[in-house]
Amino acid sequence: MKRGQFSSRLAFILAASGSAVGLGNIWGFPSKAAENGGGAFLLMYLFLAFLLAYPALMAELTLGRHGRSNMVSTLDSITSGLVQKRLGQLTGIMGVITATMILCFYSIIAGWMMAHTLASITQTLKMEKIAEWLVTFSLWRNICFSTAFISLTLLVISAGVEKGIEIWSKRLMPCLLLLLLGLIVYVLLQPGAEEGLKIFLVPDFTQLADPQLILSALGQAFFSLSLGVGTMLIYGSYIRSDENLPVAGALVTVSDTGVAVLAGMLIIPALFAAQHLGADIYTETGRLISGPDLIFHALPALFEGMGEAGALVAIAFFTLMSIAALTSSISMLEVPVSWAIETQKISRLKASIAVGVFSILISGIISYKFTSIFELVVVATTEWAQPILSLMLCLFCGWLMHRNHLLDELKQGVPDLESGLFWRIWPTYVKIFCPLLIVIILVQSFLPFS
Ligand code: TRP
User: Fold this and answer.
1) Can you say how many angstroms the Cα of residue 440 is from the centroid of all Cα atoms in its chain?
2) CB-based contacts of 31, cutoff 8 Å, min separation 6
3) Which of 119, 262, 298, 376 could form a disulfide with 131 if both were Cys (CB 3.0 to 4.6 A apart)?
4) pLDDT for 65-96, tens place per residue?
5) How far is the CA of 329 from the centre of ligand 1 (A)?
6) Atom of ligand 1 nearest to the CA of 332
């Protein structure tokens, strides 16, 4: 069977940025920045994104293009001996499971975004009852919309790499950027917004040493670049051999962090504009509100206060969120689907349906037991599994992939690689510094004073 391949560098950049740019950037990043001292968090995030997440991203892309297959088969192909092989398989399988579990909780949140988009539309059409149901938290609303969202994801993935992932990333990413820029301009013109912009951009350096801030920024950087679970590895396996990987990876990192910074310039000023209209934007402990209260209470209060234009702004905002979520979820579903196609030898259509239905079931269970399971799944997958699996991938790339193989792989797209800065720093970096830094940050989160 012929493997899929991205048709150009732009196609890869759009697909990989589509994966990277998601609810994590537009919701997670501004929320965490608001909780952790605004500009100080931004600085730490930028620092970790380029110094830790970018080298780890390069490890995944290189492994993927070298293996030209899913995470399990790739790790199997670079290992030798029983212990190494078992470790490789275990890491690969954990990646596939983690990616599927992330899709299951992500689809619930993405479903809320779709429900709010529809609610803003039905509201303008004066269908009050339906709008009310759409914005009210309920088991059935959650199940209906997460199912609809996974089904959409399934449709894209079943069409394959070029006709599904590539085409939809090319269509949706420009829309996303336009909506985001339009909303920023509009919100910054609202009274009160300027104060939010200051809070977001001016760092409070006293917060920089807070261990919680560092852990939070690390988790955010790994989640945002979709690391650890084989998403970037499988996208890397679809890049052409003559492509310059270090540059492609850098462009993805820049666009991902760029969108996160832009989203901060939208959400935090919007919060302060909402305050100007009378909304309460601080919690009882005096911190800025974050999480669902921010997106589903404070911002809608702002939209309502904007009069006629508010309805349109609300539709634009929730459409932006839904698009960002879709280009990310397709990359999550591709992980188990490519694994099923390549190791179980079934067709793409069958694999997409099987994994899609399975994810719908699991996400239904998470919705059903929301209060007890949801948070647990989020923490287990994003705060633990992702950094640990990413650590493993750095170790596989740094220690088990032969240095000459690494060099040959990267040289196909960069003939003069050996004379450049990247090759002088990155191999040792990914072998020693990345794993060490990840371990230090994880261990310190255990310590009693953190
Ligand atoms: N990076 C995306 C976001 O910021 C989410 C995402 C897509 C992801 N693929 C992933 C997260 C794989 C973890 C693993 O929303």
Assistant:
1) 23
2) 267, 290, 291, 294
3) 119
4) 999 999 999 999 999 999 999 999 999 999 99
5) 7
6) 9
